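Field log, afternoon session.

UNIT: design team B
ACTIVITY: writing a sequence onto a fixed backbone
BACKBONE:
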């Protein structure tokens, strides 16, 4: 039984409104599915894991040994051991967004350079390679999403543009980081050493190694790998442009109050009222929050 039959049996609401609502629901699903697919191609293995934290993970039921877990308390930097931490203030300016972005990227790049400079593959371990990366990853997990948040919510165009520029900077760094063969050699050496790890740390190591391979390091250096990088960069540009277009969307549809029967009154009262040819009608935008609440209330 489709949405139309269910809704008509339950509430007998206006069929025309239902058809529009179904179309809007489908549009929202397709748009945000596209965002997720495109965005997932823009991040390095470390940045991708930050995005991955939004998805539920099944708990592991397999433990190979009883070694002390490296990825529970000790994998988080000391300043995160005693929650709660203060919430973000969201007081950034366009210049501070770019400045903070460059500092985060510089910190992450300096860490990678330090690992490569000071550790040989034969001496690489989880503790001296993967654990510092995990600490930096936790720091980025707090900072990166906040800087990218402004492009979706700020009323200040300059701040939205700065947030998008930050997104592009993170993306460019992410692609370069993901294709650093010198760092991959350290991670690969840890993986091949067969070090005894708890299940969570072992999973982190496995994901890190596969992440580098996924981003082209399984392809021999040369034209094919260079082409792979070009494709990743192009996907990044398309994704950011897509997000900008969606965030700046100003379209919508006019409805009569009768066609909006069943929509919460507190939502309807905030709709723009029509004039002239649209007198007596209400303007419903395609913006995600409005569409989500309106569609969910009518289905």
């Amino acid at each position: 039984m489709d949405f139309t039959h269910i809704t008509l049996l339950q509430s007998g609401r206006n069929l025309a409104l239902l058809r529009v609502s179904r179309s809007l629901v489908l549009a929202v699903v397709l748009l945000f599915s596209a965002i997720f697919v495109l965005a997932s191609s823009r991040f390095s293995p470390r940045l991708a894991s930050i995005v991955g934290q939004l998805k539920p993970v099944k708990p592991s039921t397999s433990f190979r040994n009883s070694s002390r877990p490296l990825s529970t308390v000790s994998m988080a930097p000391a300043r995160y051991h005693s929650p709660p931490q203060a919430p973000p203030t969201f007081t950034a300016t366009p210049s501070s967004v770019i400045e903070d972005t460059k500092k985060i990227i510089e910190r992450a790049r300096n860490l990678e350079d330090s690992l490569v400079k000071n550790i040989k593959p034969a001496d690489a371990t989880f503790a001296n390679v993967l654990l510092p990366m995990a600490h930096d990853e936790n720091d980025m997990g707090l900072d990166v999403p906040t800087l990218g948040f402004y492009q979706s919510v700020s009323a200040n165009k300059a701040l939205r543009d700065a947030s998008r520029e930050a997104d592009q900077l993170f993306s460019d760094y992410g692609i370069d980081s993901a294709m650093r063969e010198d760092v991959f050699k350290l991670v690969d050496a840890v993986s091949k050493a067969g070090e005894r790890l708890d299940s969570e740390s072992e999973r982190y190591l496995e994901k890190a190694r596969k992440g580098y391979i996924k981003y082209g390091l399984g392809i021999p250096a040369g034209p094919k790998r260079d082409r792979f990088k070009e494709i990743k960069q192009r996907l990044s540009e398309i994704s950011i442009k897509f997000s900008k277009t969606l965030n700046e969307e100003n379209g919508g549809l006019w409805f009569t109050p009768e066609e909006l029967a069943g929509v919460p009154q507190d939502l309807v009262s905030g709709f723009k009222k029509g004039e002239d040819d649209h007198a007596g009608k209400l303007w419903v935008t395609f913006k995600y929050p409005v569409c989500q609440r309106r569609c969910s209330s009518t289905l």
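LOG NOTE: The chain has two domains: 3-36+249-298, 43-55+68-77+89-236.
NEXT ACTIVITY: expression trials, pending approval
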